Structure formats: structure tokens, C-alpha cells
Model the fold of this input.
Amino acid sequence: MKQFHLLLIGLLITSFGCSQAQEEKSNKPNAPKFEEGTENTLLWQITGNGLKDTSYVFGTMHLINKEYFYFPDKLKTLIQSTDAVVLEIGEDLNDPFKAMKLMQLEGDRTIFDFFNEEQTDSILTWVEGNMGMNREKFTAAFGKMKPFILVSLGSEMNMAKSAESYEKTIMKIQKESKIKLEGLETIEEQLGIFDDMTDEEQAEMVMEAIRKDGESEKMILDMMKIYRRQNIDSLYLMIHEEGETIANKEDEFLSNRNHKWIPKINSMIADRRVFIAVGAGHLGGKEGVLNLLREEGYTITPLKL
Done:
């Protein structure tokens, strides 16, 4: 569930305070030269298959402690040399009210409707111990929110206050350089995954997170260390080690989304230079973005970062 936790944090953080540039970038710098690297890298080059220019795929960690954050000047220059920046979610990030609306329950439902009495008591005990909120305060703040918000809150509390966001850093460069910002999916599509889960599945997802709360800090730290070593295959494998609810939904959270992204990527990179940045957990494995692009006929080359 680690990758899933961080995906949620990334969505909540990058959904606020970023505006999209509408002007075309002029006087672009030349793309910097990278040496060919090993499979242990976060940066990959896309060439061949009739492309008119070279594009790039970069694996992010949506939220990471500063000591593990690595963003060399060469990577910034590479982004500045492109015609478009593509994230998991693009222009929807400019509408925080839309994101908040999609996180809220409709009608008379409250977050407590998903849980039995025993589960509710466990949640309130966890909330009081971790957030210092009694039932009344919690209900006022989160009573109308969807259950996955609790998973995100639990993960966010285990991150250092000095955390960095790759997406926010990339978007800052994109905005300052007046480069187009595009997305592989909408907020509705991303959050719709949770709406398709049964009430029981959503409740178990939250209870799994609470039961493993004591392990979360170590798990996230392990993930950050592996990310800093740029081992995308290990990141991918970590997903299989977590909660049953998420493991059983792996197709919805990862594989199906990866497959849906490929036709969009084909169109986006056809005749221009594009910098694509998605969660590193989407890159590895047979159903990962890199292998799916290879199957499309592209040459995917690891670059030394």
C-alpha cells in the first residue's frame, strides 16, 4: 500500500496552488547530453518508431523527504528544452475546488456509514492519538469526506515536515518556462477508482492502514531509500507486499491505468519533444509503462541521472 499512500498524498498536495501557463515557450535550451545508464535509473529516453524528436519518461515519488530528494540542474535543463510536460494529472491540478468536491460524499452519507461500531471506535481512537481530535472535531472536519482520505492522512503524518514534491518542482519549472502542461488522466478518472470499490472494500482499505500504522514510517522510509537508489523494479515489487485490498485491486490502480495511458502517450510524443513524469511504481514490470512502450515499437534507453 506504500505506493498507493504516496499517490494519494501527491494528489492532495499537487492539487493546490499551481497554475498552468498558456503561452508557448520560446528560446528553448538544447537538450543536455546524458550518458546511457543501467536499468537502475529514473530517467528513460524514447526514440524510434517514426518519432520526429526524442521524448523522455521520468519516475517520480509524489512526496519524499528532503534528504532523499534528487533533482540535478541537468534534469531542469532537460525539462526546459521540451515542448510539453506531461503528468498523471494535468490541467485539473489548477482547480482545487474540483478536487475537493470529488473527495466529498454525496447526499446524506457520512464517513461513518462505511464502518461498523467496532471499526468506528478504532478509527476515533486512532484519530485522537494521531491528530488530537475528538469525535466532534473529526466529524466537523472529515465527516463528509470519502474513506480514502483517512489513508492519505495517515501516510502524510508519517512524512517529515521538510518533504519535497517532484510534481510541484516540475510544475514550477514548467510554469516559469511557459511550457504546455498536459495530463494522462483526469482527477475524475483517478479518484473514480475508489468510487468503483464496494463499501466493504473501502472500509477494509482504511482498517488495513490503521492496523499497520506503526509500520508505516519504516515502510515509507524503505521506499524512499529504494527510490533514491533509482531501482524501479524493486519499487514495483513492493506494491505486491502490501495490504490485500490494494493487491486485489492492482489492475485498477496500476496496470489498467498504464494501458490506458499508452495511446495518449503515442499521440503526445508523435511530433514533438515531451517530458513525461509519473509515479515510479508505474514504470517497472511486464505491465509497466516502459515495457508497454517497448511493445509499441519504441526504443527505450536508460539514461544516467
Strands lie at 43-47, 55-60, 64-65, 84-89, 163-164, 180-185, 274-279, 299-303. Confidence is low (pLDDT under 50) at residues 1-25. The longest helix spans residues 250-269. The longest strand covers residues 55-60.
